[in-house]
Amino acid sequence: PEEATAMARAVPNRRREFAAGRRAARSALATLGHAPAAIPMAPDRAPLWPEGVTGTISHGAGICLALLGRSEDWAGLGLDLEPALPLPEDTVATICTPAERETVTQDPSGLLSRRLFCAKEATYKAQYAQSRRLLSFHDLEVTFDASGGFSAELLTDCPPFPPATCFAGHSLQTGDILAALVTLPRL
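Structure (tokenized):
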């Protein structure tokens, strides 16, 4: 019931995604040795994890995944799933910094724009566990390496992260799904 109230006004598809995310999160909680528990939504819409747990939920392209860890080990976790389709042209300027737009124009597949979006979403989720700050798309600049790894550089002040902080992540494509993961180990 604590979870259902958050979705009372949502459309049926959004309710299904939300429920699938919470089921995946409870399954992940079990692997950490936790009893099944409600995972309500905070006023900022982030999941309220049980004490000692941090995590991330993502759904897209018809699947839903949750990744959880002990907060003593992880300062933040971020996962995003997206369909392996180019972003609409009119969205690229909203998502990409000028340097990223230049790189996107060099991509013959058209998927780099969506990969950038996916990487930024995963980074936003991971850093949010510490900063509790919503970033804009132009607050991060992402660069990819040949192995699927990426670096997301923070272009603004976002305590406890200073400008120029680089978050490391990994992205991959499997079939028609793009995924990005950012993990922030506890130091």
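The beta strands are 53-60, 63-70, 74-83, 140-144, 149-154, 166-174, 177-185. The helical segments are 12-31, 89-95, 98-105, 112-131.
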